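Support request, please re-run this one:
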Amino acid sequence: MARVVVDVMLKPEILDPQGEAVASA
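Re-run finished. Output below.
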């Protein structure tokens, strides 16, 4: 799941509802 968090941090412009939910979890 760490990879998802890094992906979101690297792509703050691409904030998908799924990605955000996974990052929160």
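The mean pLDDT is 66. The first helix runs from residue 2 to 10.
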